[in-house]
């Protein structure tokens, strides 16, 4: 696959609630409180997520956020269609997003709304997108896997170790998993290969229903299934050599991976500031997965970092991460509570900055001094 230059963006800084926005950003960049608000909406196979943010010199600061598990892709892998009840759940969540955007005063021109695997895979995906447009005014754009992978990378850029010579970004979704392999070269770090595996936490869990007494054999079956799905992907041997030499790391972004991190930390409640950017070893990931297997469905549902909505999906996410680790063994994994939405925000803000007309100067008649800028 051809190398693709990395997006020229610094990545999203740490998100903050509007009630605690500092006068200065953490890296010293000032925040213009009169700057317009931007919105990024991501309708995935499992979640509906919204971010509303204001530009800052070093990226942006989040003003409002929304996330709801809707399971839009429920039973999609068996039927090829979006289920009526799943569409209703997603529609209700999207209607709430539309209300928040209006309440915050986000100009529709500064909103980017996308739909991913469930809508692009489903026979009735475009019809659902049209229903959403008519009913809520939201114009969802179904993006392809290549754009999804690139946006996820853009949203995670500032979690890359600047000393790393190789980085593998894993974006685990509900219906697909995007993998991007990046290596440092003469032009800096750039994507050298990517792939989209047609399995995510929802589709993998549906293919492997948990037995009453969840066992390591059941978990291993999920690992093997996903391993087969990615067996033909990836870059050449140079990437693996850098990883094996300790000159690279992974970045994992998904609700399943952040939940795994919460279990590793033993959190009584999910705390983004402790999870986002956390470094875990391969052994840490494996121990957290072993603990989740031992807990069983009821025990996982009782964990505050997982809850009943993710109890049957989190181990599928752990199995995906484990399969990737076996294919490209890496000691360091950085957890990202960020990704596609942050990439959308940064992309739109950058486009608007580039579209601003350049101010031209003209000479005054009879003089050499610059005149008033046009």
Rg from C-alpha positions? 22 Å
Structural class, please? Answer: alpha/beta
Shape: globular
Read across the widest sheet, the strand sequence of neighbours is 8-7-6-9-11-10
Separation, N- and C-terminal Cα atoms: 46 Å
Number of strands: 11
Largest sheet: 6 strands, mixed
Helical content (DSSP H or I, runs of 4+): 25-40%
Q: What CATH first level of the domain at 156-336 would be assigned?
A: Alpha Beta
> In percent terms, what proportion of residues is strand?
15-25%
The name of the CATH architecture of the domain at 156-336 is 2-Layer Sandwich
Number of alpha- plus pi-helical segments: 13
CATH topology tier name of the domain at 156-336: Nucleotidyltransferase, domain 5
Task: Walk me through what this model shows.
The chain has helices spanning 76-79, 84-104, 117-121, 125-136, 145-156, 201-207, 216-229, 237-244, 255-265, 272-275, 282-302, 314-327, 340-355; strands spanning 38-43, 47-56, 59-69, 111-115, 141-142, 166-172, 177-185, 188-197, 248-253, 279-281, 332-336. The chain is built from 13 helices and eleven strands. β6 and β7 form a beta hairpin. It is an alpha/beta fold and 374 residues long. The model is unreliable at 1-29 and 364-374 (pLDDT under 50). The longest helix has 21 residues, at 84-104. It has a domain at 156-336: Nucleotidyltransferase, domain 5, CATH 3.30.420. The chain has a six-stranded mixed beta sheet with strand order 8-7-6-9-11-10, sandwiched between helices. A five-stranded mixed beta sheet has the order 3-2-1-4-5, with helices on both faces.
């Amino acid at each position: 696959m051809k190398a693709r230059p990395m997006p020229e963006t610094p990545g999203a800084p740490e998100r903050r609630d509007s009630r605690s926005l500092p006068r200065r950003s953490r890296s010293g960049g000032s925040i213009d409180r009169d700057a317009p608000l931007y919105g990024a909406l991501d309708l995935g196979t499992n979640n509906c997520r919204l971010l509303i943010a204001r530009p800052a010199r070093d990226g942006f600061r989040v003003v409002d956020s929304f996330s709801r598990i809707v399971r839009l892709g429920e039973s999609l892998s068996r039927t090829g269609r979006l289920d009526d009840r799943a569409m209703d759940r997603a529609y209700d969540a999207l209607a709430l997003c539309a209300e928040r955007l209006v309440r915050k005063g986000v100009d529709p021109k500064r909103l980017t709304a996308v739909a991913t695997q469930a809508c692009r895979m489903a026979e009735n995906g475009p019809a659902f997108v049209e229903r959403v447009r008519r009913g809520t005014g939201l114009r969802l754009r179904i993006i392809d896997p290549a754009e999804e992978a690139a946006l996820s990378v853009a949203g995670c850029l500032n979690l890359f170790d600047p000393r790393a010579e190789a980085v593998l970004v894993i974006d685990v979704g509900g219906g697909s998993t995007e993998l991007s392999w990046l290596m440092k070269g003469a032009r800096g770090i750039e994507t050298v290969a990517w792939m989209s595996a047609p399995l995510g936490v929802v589709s993998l869990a549906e293919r492997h229903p948990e037995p009453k007494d969840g066992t390591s054999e059941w978990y291993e079956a999920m690992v093997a299934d996903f391993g087969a799905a990615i067996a033909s992907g990836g870059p050449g041997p140079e990437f693996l050599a850098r990883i094996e030499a300790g000159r690279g790391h992974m970045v994992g972004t998904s609700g399943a991976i952040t939940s795994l991190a919460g279990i590793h930390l033993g959190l009584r409640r999910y705390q983004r500031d402790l999870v986002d950017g956390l470094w875990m070893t391969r052994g840490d990931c494996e121990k957290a997965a072993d603990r989740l297997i031992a807990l069983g469905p009821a025990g996982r549902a009782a964990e505050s970092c997982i809850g009943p909505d993710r109890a049957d999906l989190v181990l599928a996410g752990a199995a995906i991460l484990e399969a990737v680790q076996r294919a490209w063994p890496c000691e360091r994994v950085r957890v990202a509570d960020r990704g596609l939405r942050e990439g959308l925000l940064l992309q739109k803000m950058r486009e608007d900055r580039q579209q601003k007309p350049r101010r031209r100067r003209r000479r005054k008649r009879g003089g050499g001094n610059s005149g008033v800028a046009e």
